[in-house]
Amino acid sequence: MSVNDRFALRDSVEVSQGFGRPLASKMKMVGHVVAELRGPDGQLKQRESVHNLVTDVGDQYHASLAYGTAGWTYRMKTGSASTAAAKNGAGSFVAVADYNSGSAHAMAATYPKVGASANICQWQVLWAAGENTNTIRRVGIVDNATDAGEADASNTMSMAVFGADITKGASDTLTVTWTVTFLGA
């Protein structure tokens, strides 16, 4: 995967050495979301690949990992709005108005997990035939275990908006694999 700086997330970390001058580090985190729609025969019908945007709450969540205070129960939810992903506000969560009924789904049994290397974290959800039968334009990683609709901005870690509509039929399966790569200093 090539890294495009337009999609790189940068956080600066300052470590005081007690000399009055902090050390600066530029940590980068790149997120990539892939959705694969398969027909009842298992054949790939559509593949969408986009970069995600980590919300303000996601930034806080990642920072809290260093302290072990996050306490999130990961889920994914989908929505039908084409609103651009945003750090906060309407683009930072799947709202009641665009929530796809039945899309709240727990991660696959072995997720989240470290990916191919120690600096990669992956989340994955599989919506089976008959589940989340909708037009899907956006997906979010949330800490909202209910199927009540809204995973508001305070419960949404990351959002991704697909470039094309994904129309999941009743016989289709949809797998969303979300990969975040920490690029370090």
3D structure, described in words:
This protein is mainly β and 185 residues long. It has one domain. The chain has one helix and eleven strands, in the order ββββαβββββββ. The protein has one helix at 56-65; strands spanning 9-16, 22-38, 44-51, 53-54, 75-79, 105-106, 113-114, 120-127, 135-142, 156-167, 173-182. The strands form two sheets. Strands 1, 2, 3, 7, 8 and 11 form a six-stranded antiparallel β-sheet that branches. The longest helix has 10 residues, at 56-65. It starts with 8 loop residues before the first strand and ends with a strand.
Secondary structure elements and their pairing?
Elements lengths: L8 E8 L5 E17 L5 E8 L1 E2 L1 H10 L9 E5 L25 E2 L6 E2 L5 E8 L7 E8 L13 E12 L5 E10 L3
Summarize the structure.
This protein is mainly β.
What portion of residues is helical? Answer: under 10%
Instruction: Please report the total strand number as a whole number.
Output: 11
Gyration radius over CA = 17 Å
Strand content: 35-45%
Distance between the termini: 18 Å
Low-confidence stretches: 1-25
Order of H and E elements: EEEEHEEEEEEE
Largest beta-sheet details: 6 strands, antiparallel
What is the overall shape?
A: globular
The computed structural class is mainly beta
Number of domains: 1
| Helix segment tally | 1
